[in-house]
Amino acid sequence: xxxxxxxxxxxxxxxxxxxxxxxxxxxxxxxxxxxxxxxxxxxxxxxxxxxxxxxxxxxxxxxxxxxxxxxxxxxxxxxxxxxxxxxxxxxxxxxxxxxxxxxxxxxxxxxxxxxxxxxxxxxxxxxxxxxxxxxxxxxxxxxxxxxxxxxxxxxxxxxxxxxxxxxxxxxxxxxxxxxxxxxxxxxxxxxxxxxxxxxxxxxxxxxxxxxxxxxxxxxxxxxxxxxxxxxxxxxxxxxxxxxxxxxxxxxxxxxxxxxxxxxxxxxxxxxxxxxxxxxxxxxxxxxxxxxxxxxxxxxxxxxxxxxxxxxxxxxxxxxxxxxxxxxxxxxxxxxxxxxxxxxxxxxxxxxxxxxxxxxxxxxxxxx
Length: 367
Prior knowledge:
Elements: E1 8-9, E2 20-27, E3 32-38, E4 51-58, E5 66-72, E6 76-85, E7 88-95, E8 105-111, E9 116-117, E10 121-122, E11 124-126, E12 132-134, H1 137-146, E13 166-167, E14 173-177, E15 182-189, E16 195-206, E17 210-215, E18 218-224, E19 232-237, E20 248-249, E21 259-263, E22 266-272, E23 290-295, E24 306-311, E25 317-324, E26 327-334, H2 339-342, E27 353-360
Parallel strand pairs: 11-16
Antiparallel strand pairs: 1-27, 2-3, 3-4, 4-5, 6-7, 7-8, 8-9, 8-10, 11-12, 13-14, 14-15, 15-16, 17-18, 18-19, 19-20, 21-22, 22-23, 23-24, 25-26, 26-27
């Protein structure tokens, strides 16, 4: 069992009472780790809209840290991040409003060297007919319907979904658009996601989160869906998303954000493993106190080698994993102070701070 007591807080606890949805990006030129996260407004607890912030620090020295706000506003939500190289990162976020349910996806660039945040831009979509339009749920749902898929929630009152953007050997950045409960539109981009284009649809309904990577001629994917407690599924495609295998439930998983990362030429999947042990403390919602990291070597993910188990009685939620030359680094939300519970909420979501830990090489020598 990896000792999470060594983890270091990497959100700004002096002015933030919540810390959620951490997403890491590493800059190999300067050795800097960037973490986009969602603190909400001061005095907010748990999962809170209102502000998207960025912390940055030497990857091996997280106590030498700085913070900068990327955007503030009642409607900003769900950060994501893409490293641009040369000390720059692109931070994405949803702009949510109850009046406009189309949910534009926006971004700002942060230049670490010059300590500068760019103006806001909107992510654009190049539709199959060549027209370029601003991202919105309606554009994605139109793409589904034109291809005969109609199982999504059209008037979505929640956020757009989550997928870690990643660079592939072909020069494209890849990602996906799930929704509150929908099929998944897979996209690629040749301009760092300023403009994206669809290339495939996964026909299974995902709830908020969908992750995928390419390896050995296949597209491997895990996703969250609303299927009682066991809510993380695995599927694969050998033809770039034209057809998909029958999904397999990952046993004893729990409703939370799953992840994939390439390390030493192999795929590691990471997901919340059901465990409601919070010791003498308040219960963490849905038993989200344990994480399992597995080596994806089998078409039934439940037969794969478990590389590491992580448990925290404080909760461990919404993880982000980055590989640096075979060593893994982890960020996650937790509720060590249980501020939400102490300020009137009868249960804990596990999101009052963001912590960071080097896991090291957990793959080397594992077959």
